[in-house]
Amino acid sequence: MTPLAPAPPTKQHTVVDSPYGPLTLVATDGVLSALYMTDQRHRPPEETFGVPDPEPFGEAVRQLTEYFAGDRTAFDLPLHLHGTPFQRSVWAELLKIPYGETRTYGELAEELGKPGASRAVGLANGKNPVGIIVPCHRVIGASGSLTGYGGGLDRKQRLLAFESGGTGEEAQALF
I need a surface site. Which of 60, 95, 162, 173 has the fewest CB within 10 A? Predict the structure, then answer.
């Protein structure tokens, strides 16, 4: 008897509004696997997002709504993150950055025990498939400058300002 190949993963997606524009949520086998902003760098083609279906996203939408209302500072969602082992280790480290705080790429590399890998950390950070929830916006350059962000520097600035309790203009003055 020949073993059957495993079934391909089931994907669904939905689009929700946010203060930062529409967010596309993607689930793989019912678990959140992506959150993409419009015009996001490394955003895959829409045909890879699966069928439109809001069903698997109720808890994610609830927690995002609480976050944008200022009532949530950390997410508690199962995630299905696709990436290399190194990328997943960087994304796990991102989840440890507290709300309202930032880290540099070098600091993340140090935390991973790879002090010379700040560039590799930056590349992995840029490929984070679940923006906002896995807070890649909280990573800044060594000089304290706002550096690349897949969702655009304006969104990064606005997210950091929001988390620090200020406006985008106030965040620009901070960095």
Answer: 173
